[in-house]
Amino acid sequence: MARNDRYAHERDFWNEFSATSRRYAATAFGNKVDEGYIPLGHPWADSRAFIYRQIGDVAGKRVLDCGAGTGWLSIVMARRGAAEVTAIDVSDRMLELLRDLARENGVTGRIRTRATAIETAEFPAGSFDVVACVDVLHHTDVGNAVHRIHGWLRPGGIAVISDPLADSRTVEWAKGIVPVRRMGTETERGLRLAELLDACHGFSRIEHREFQLFSRLDRLVHHRTVRGALLRLDAALLAAFPPLRRFARITVVRAVK
After folding, report:
1. Ordered structural domains, the chain, with CATH
2. Whether 161 contacts 196, CB under 8 Å
């Protein structure tokens, strides 16, 4: 699929999905966005909390949120005292929801939005202290996107990147036969950890951590206590047996320019 066609497909998909996101924000959290926006026991809770820790102190800093979606990360960074947060997303309706949530959370003046894909966004070199990119790169040309992120960072700035992984053929095969509804676009693809780390070669320091083994069964296991137990089991297994990382669902990469 040609690049412009891919952007249009992604934009249309996420524009339609924005209505679901708006209902979720209103019913699950009363539109209150903070670091508890993903509740404990949710399969994404551990990785989201780790993302916050990896970003660290943003007080007075300039932050870019790539593929911002509903703006949960942008709003948290603004509430943490970022001087300015720039949120980009291919979906103009997602950005409309982001602006509504920013207003309800009292941070409108600290967040500006721009409807653009990461591969077509234009910013001067060294514009940002922090660039966050969550669940985006598997929709892109990874090498090109990471190169652009590197250029937008000031020397010493950090990029925090999180994406789903497709390192295990066995896991990918199993995903194809498990009878659950999948959310995603036709243009996204499986991303391998080695590919992502190779794309980050221009950074001076890179570290990463993986998440979710059994807790990836979240669409089959709905009890929060069981989900929490699976998250704890996964954390213990991944810490004790590093080779299991190839079966993980998510990686979080922190790269310093």
Report:
1. 3-256 (3.40.50.150)
2. yes
